[in-house]
Design goal:
Helix content is 48%, strand content 11%. It is of the alpha/beta class and 275 residues long. The protein has a 7-stranded parallel sheet. Strand 6, helix 9 and strand 7 form a beta-alpha-beta unit. Helix 1 packs parallel to helix 2 and helix 2 packs across helix 3. The chain is globular and about 60 Å long. The termini are far apart.
């Protein structure tokens, strides 16, 4: 296949994907769903050397600008979640370099959309020394381009970095923390329950922006870390009571996607709760 044919193929796939994002934004607007996380594979191989001749930023900028305007007009808050291979605190230089490339790609897309949006990341690995790995995250964070640093928010994970680990890091770097309450329930090495004062402290990392939490239910008791198709409202009601009076976004991480949102709202409505 010639270079021209390859670029035409890349453009065709990308335009189709972006068009689908536009339709999802319209669907969300019609169904009062105000959040949407764009998949990181929106473009095919945007950082891979095999596409180095493909000037997608110049070619696709008008499309991204249209999508951003659409999201703004309809009040849909857009975000990305970096993939599992994006590891800012990796001790391997090649892994860190590839992570930078991936984050720059996501940040560039948001900039072309002209949206004040965020990119969710995890801290990364422990590498047998948690404190050293946290310090390496801080060191590598300041190696990131400015337009990437201003978009990052950090999420607690379900195996290595708890909500309190992430809170300390976010306060140190002046970054927002997204609290994943499923991860909190699966991995809580401190063995203590969250209290409202700590939620206030987490939410305060967002400054004037609206805080966000991630919500999901375990697939099974045997697979507690995997996400279920739908969200059991009992996995939220304890946090709802604890966070009474606070305003925040809820990002559902459920395999059934928009169907899970509808069912979640209906079940809460059955308890007299409207969101």
């Amino acid at each position: 296949m010639s270079l021209t044919s390859r670029i035409e193929k890349l453009n065709s796939i990308s335009l189709s994907n972006i068009s689908q994002i536009d339709e999802i934004i319209k669907f969300n607007n019609e169904n009062n769903i105000e959040l949407y996380r764009i998949p990181t594979n929106l473009l095919p191989f945007p950082t891979h050397p095999i596409t180095k001749e493909w000037n997608w930023r110049q070619i696709l900028q008008p499309c991204f600008e249209y999508t951003g305007n659409l999201a703004r007009k309809m009040g849909i808050r857009i975000s990305f979640h970096a993939d599992e291979y994006t590891i800012v605190n990796s001790p391997i230089e090649r892994v860190f370099t590839n992570s930078v490339d991936s984050l720059v790609y996501l940040a560039d897309v948001l900039d072309m959309m002209r949206l004040d949006s965020n990119i969710v990341i995890h801290v990364g690995g422990v590498y047998k020394d948690k404190e050293a790995s946290l310090e390496r995250f801080v060191e590598n964070f300041f190696k990131l381009p400015q337009h990437v640093r201003t978009k990052l928010i950090i999420e607690n994970d379900d195996k290595q970095y708890s909500w309190s680990d992430v809170l300390k890091l976010c306060e140190r770097l002046n970054l927002p923390q997204v609290l994943d309450i499923h991860h909190y329930k699966v991995f809580n090495p401190e063995g203590k329950p969250l209290i409202k004062e700590e939620i206030n402290r987490i939410f305060s990392t967002w400054d004037t922006k609206k805080p966000k939490i991630h919500l999901s239910s375990p697939k099974t008791q045997q697979e507690p870390r995997a996400h279920a198709e739908y969200v059991d409202i009992e996995d939220f009601l304890w946090f709802y009571k604890l966070s009474e009076g606070l305003d925040y976004d809820i990002m559902l991480e459920a395999k059934a996607k928009e169907l899970a949102v509808v069912e979640f709202r209906n079940r809460l409505a059955g308890r007299g709760i409207t969101i």
